[in-house]
């Protein structure tokens, strides 16, 4: 069993304030690359009618990183 820790999470926030953890990453570099790839989806509406407002990278303690 693996004890791998994923200290960074990519979180999507929608126009109705719902949040979704879109991924967990071992390095800040990987998390930021995923954020860059996902930026094209900001403003898009998903199948449930929610519009993506922001994409945030959070550290394990819940602090936002740029």
Give the structure's gist in a few sentences.
It is built from 1 helix and 4 strands. With 66 residues, the chain is an alpha+beta fold.
Descriptive labels:
66 residues; alpha+beta; four-stranded antiparallel β-sheet
Task: Give the helix/strand layout.
Blueprint: E1 8-14, E2 19-25, H1 28-38, E3 52-59, E4 64-65
Antiparallel strand pairs: 1-2, 1-3, 3-4
Polypeptide structure, described:
By secondary structure, the protein is α+β, with helices and mostly antiparallel strands. The chain has one domain (8-60). Helix content is 17%, strand content 36%. The protein is built from one helix and four strands; from the N terminus they run ββαββ. A hairpin with a 4-residue loop joins strand 1 and strand 2 (19-25). The mean pLDDT is 89.
- SSE pattern: EEHEE
- Major sheet summary line: 4 strands, antiparallel
Uncertain ranges:
none
Assign a percent range to the helix content. 10-25%
Instruction: Calculate the terminal CA-CA distance, rounded to whole Å.
Output: 32 Å
Q: Which class best fits the helix and strand makeup?
A: alpha+beta
């Amino acid at each position: 069993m693996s004890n791998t820790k994923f200290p960074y999470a990519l979180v999507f926030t929608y126009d109705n304030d719902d949040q979704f953890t879109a991924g967990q990453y071992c390095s800040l570099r990987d998390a930021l690359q995923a954020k860059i790839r996902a930026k094209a989806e900001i403003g898009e509406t998903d199948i449930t009618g929610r519009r993506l407002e922001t994409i945030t990278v959070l550290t394990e303690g819940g602090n936002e990183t740029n």
